[in-house]
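>> received
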Amino acid sequence: MIIREENEREICIKASHSVPEVKQVAQQAMRARFAFIVVHIMFPLLLGGLIYASWRDQNLPMFRWFDLAGLGPLVQQLRLAAAPLQDRLPFWFRFSLPDAVWVYALTAFMMLVWKEASSRMKALWISMGLLLGAGSELGQLAGYVPGRFDIFDFVLCICAAGLALVFTSKRINFKRSMNEAAT
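>> returned
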């Protein structure tokens, strides 16, 4: 049986495949997509958030958000537990890595969403992490963005975007991207 999709691609399903086999293939694709999201998007975001919550200045707005969400005491316990590590960790780990892992996660997410898009749109959206991360550093250097330019932030953001491209381009092997599924 042949099913024609909107984008005029044909998906051939051999008559010899039973419905349970088709469901199994679909479930495997969903598991692969979920694993991709956990490893390349959720874990980096969680890591960056934990670094911020553990060692960054408590005057940042996110700490007010923690209080409003009722997470203030939990964050304080995390900060107390993580305090002994603060002096042992390199400066870039505490101050540059969170931005880099967020650039990685955004780049990986865009790779997933725009996997099947046209090359111009794909390139634009996939480069968003790099543009926001490294671009904000260049904006700081030029005086257009508040903050202080940091070469470690700049370099790590570029490396994070590149690593996301390398690690995710071969791993997106499930049948359809999220962008296709939404149409």
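>> Residues 19-55 form the longest helix (37 residues).
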